[in-house]
Amino acid sequence: MCTLRTLLPEFFGKCLVKEEYRRYHKIAQSVVLPKLTPDHYRVYVAKYHNIEWEASEAILLFRQTICLAEYIKAQDYLSGFVLVGDFSDANLMNYLPKLSILQCKQIFNILMEGFGMRVKQIHIISKSKLVDGLVMFLKKMLSAKIFDRLKMHKSIEDLYEYFPKTILPKDYGGDERSLDTLQAEWIDVLSSDEYLKYLQEMNAATTNESCRPKDQFSEHYAGMPGTFRYLTVD
């Protein structure tokens, strides 16, 4: 994790969710649901809205995801994650051309390798005619093993086959608090002085790569998408 913070610093640093992320929260709502699934997995829901945004704003999504992951790592006990990406109200043409496969691979590598996140399933909701383009994007972004866990849905009701309504937000026909309420609660948690102090301490844990012997430099990190590879020329 320390190596990842050093090699990919743009994903880390201060995360002043309440002050600096108001614009992002109009683009997407991303929350971790309060209740676990019956087999003890935590559900992460990201609902994307039909709003114009710039490609440069994608980093806000990635940084808040890291901020959430740091909190979950410190405070929660779970078997892994089920991810839900809801594009039912979004125009995919506002998203696909602006999302970088490189950055998406990097953030997934941080979550999987750095935080040790286990992904049971990924659910995508979209009735767009461009959904095939989204599937191709995800196929390039994800490993074959994770891609095989992808479930595509045309309606919210399809989720009932996989999740009890008791854990789903009201927006999805469930009994849990609404996405607006859950997001507001998460913003308060991630903006608390206690958590920001903890996050600062975690972000300070980096490596001095100049001290790493070249012949011992891990190929896993050297070959990580978006970083660099060592090239020795005699």
TrEMBL record:
Residues 43-180 form the CRAL-TRIO domain. It comes from the Eukaryota. InterPro entries: CRAL-TRIO_dom (IPR001251), CRAL-TRIO_dom_sf (IPR036865). SUPFAM superfamilies: CRAL/TRIO domain. Transmembrane segments: none annotated. PROSITE patterns: CRAL_TRIO. It holds the Pfam family CRAL_TRIO. This is Alpha-tocopherol transfer protein-like. The gene is LOC112045014.
